[in-house]
Design brief:
Blueprint (H helix, E strand, L loop, with lengths): L3 H8 L3 H21 L3 H4 L4 H12 L8 E3 L6 E3 L3 E5 L2 E4 L4
Antiparallel strand pairs: 1-2, 3-4
Bound molecules: zinc ion (ZN).
Pfam family, one: DUF4193
InterPro entries: DUF4193
Protein name: DUF4193 domain-containing protein
């Protein structure tokens, strides 16, 4: 079973992994302590998260010309799923 050597580190939480995490956290805490609330401390927060958050909140896709918002389920759907108009509102096939 030679593959065990390769699989073991992935399936079980290994010491090196947890160790490095602890080290990172320790380091971050120390930096935050030393630098208090300086801007530099912000660099130690994983940069990806903020960017992701911003993208999620700013990426608002308007209803496209070939789309409509269903008055029943309030989903924006493709015109191909348009079933008709009910009480002045577009209705999709699912809600019709
Ligand atoms: Zn619907």
């Amino acid at each position: 079973m030679a593959a065990v050597d390769y699989d073991a580190p992935r399936t079980a939480p290994t010491e090196p992994e947890t160790e490095s995490l602890d080290l990172l956290q320790e380091r971050r805490e120390r930096k935050t302590d030393d630098l208090a609330d300086t801007d530099f401390a912000d660099d130690y927060i994983l940069p990806g998260f903020d960017v992701l958050d911003e993208e999620l909140s700013t990426t608002v896709v308007p209803v496209q010309p070939d789309e409509f918002r269903c008055g029943g389920c309030f989903l924006v759907l493709h015109r191909g799923l348009h079933a008709g108009v009910h009480r002045g509102q577009d209705i999709c096939r699912d809600c019709a």
